[in-house]
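Section 5: illustrative case.
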């Protein structure tokens, strides 16, 4: 911040490129996790399954990878991004697939963009 003081009064100016960031929040579901449902998977193994799936955030033209994220054990992800347009995609793992990605999103200052991502593991 810069202050200008003239004749007893001060003016405060903001730097030109200080726009509030926005957020991307995603809910990721992964399944099936066993060939026969329902199945019992320990929490530690479930955490490994979720953390192994990488969601990638690119600039709008896909030339620059901005962030790589993995969902937590509950399938939740949240990250701060500068305002602008992005493409969200998934780094493939084995035969995983999703029709939810790639997705184009727009982040507005102080706002949150939401995505629901369902990943099919291909386990049958």
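Designed sequence:
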């Amino acid at each position: 911040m810069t202050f200008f003081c003239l004749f007893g009064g001060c003016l405060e100016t903001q730097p030109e490129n200080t726009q509030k960031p926005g957020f991307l929040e995603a809910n990721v579901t992964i399944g099936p996790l066993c060939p026969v449902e329902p199945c019992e998977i320990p929490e530690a193994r479930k955490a490994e399954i979720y953390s192994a799936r990488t969601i990638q955030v690119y600039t709008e033209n896909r030339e620059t990878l901005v962030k790589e994220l993995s969902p937590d054990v509950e399938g939740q992800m949240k990250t701060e991004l500068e305002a602008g347009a992005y493409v969200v995609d998934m780094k493939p793992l084995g035969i995983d697939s999703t029709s939810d990605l790639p997705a184009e999103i727009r982040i507005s200052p102080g706002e949150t963009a939401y995505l629901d991502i369902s990943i099919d593991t291909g386990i049958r």
